[in-house]
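Dear colleague,

Thank you for sharing your sequence with our group. We've completed the structure prediction you requested, and as agreed, I am returning the results in plain text so they can be pasted directly into your records. Please verify that the sequence below matches your submission; if there's any discrepancy, let me know and we will rerun it promptly.
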Amino acid sequence: MIRFVPKRISERIEHMRKTTILAVGLAASVPAMLVAQSPATTPVAAGLDRNTLHVQVILDHLGFGPGVLDGRQGQSLVAALMGFQEAKGLPITGKADIRTLQALYPYRAFRPEATITLTPAMLAGPYTNPMPKDPQEQAKLQTLGYRSPMEKLGEMFHTTPAVLMELNSPTTMLTAGSKIVVPNAIPQSQSYDSSISDDWKQTLTTLNVDANEPKADHIVVDKSDGVLRVLDANDKLLAQFSATMGSSHDPLPLGTWKINGNDYNPKFRYNPALFWDASKSAKGAMLPPGPNGPVGVVWMDLSKEHYGIHGTPSPETIGRAESHGCIRLTNWDAARVSMMVRPGMKVIFQA
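Please find the predicted structure tokens below.
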């Protein structure tokens, strides 16, 4: 059985709170918890860096999704910083430089980590393990659920099981009443609109999606930057998320499209004719819903036939692996975007 032991996080946070930053020109009020050096000047550490995690957590809360909250430098964090800098009217460097740290400082109440008490609901299945690879076998299942409580908790706190292991110890039981340390992806509100179905509310709750999201006027999917940008009517950037889009076999269809509507916790019709890498003997199948389905927890259907914006069963691959032409986000980011859009909204695909 997987076990964790929480570290003495309160002592660690208090020690870091008292740390003084020794950087020329940096405002004395900017705490060490917000220091995150540029990938261009600092080698990527082998392990989780809590200063970097703090920056990621703040950006995640503000709607500039850095992908997986893992306390590591990477292209998703660079893109998130660039989005935040654009929205704040800062020089766009993609680095956590002095001016950016000062702009992040007012949001320091979003601590990098939180200690939570596991509840029966957090640990509840159904789980799907083993997960068959063959679509014909998947079609026989009731759900394409998480493989384990660890995977569920990873998505719940916008991270991975490996990061949860880093933040804790392998000796704590994953049982109701246990306390574990997680990236602080806890939303400010989960008072979702009464018009939302109970099933979708449960998904939003599981993914810790905040109930208060900005309303978009239009969306731009930018191939060169690898991001999905949410904008208002004046082209002001409201939110931004790292995305996987297209491949050499299924390039992003440049142009202007529209959102037809959202399908929450969708089934997925597997049509091998639409997959260049499907075997010649592959047969079609209707796959059940679930976070580990091919399109994750939500499908935002586009006016371009067979294309949509959707989630993924593999959040760690966002911005790295190729897709079959569609726009793929982490499940938590896809759910969040779905709350910002409406049918008929313009979506621009650009290179």
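Summary note from our side: Residues 81 and 232 are 19 Å apart (CA to CA).

Kind regards,
the structure core
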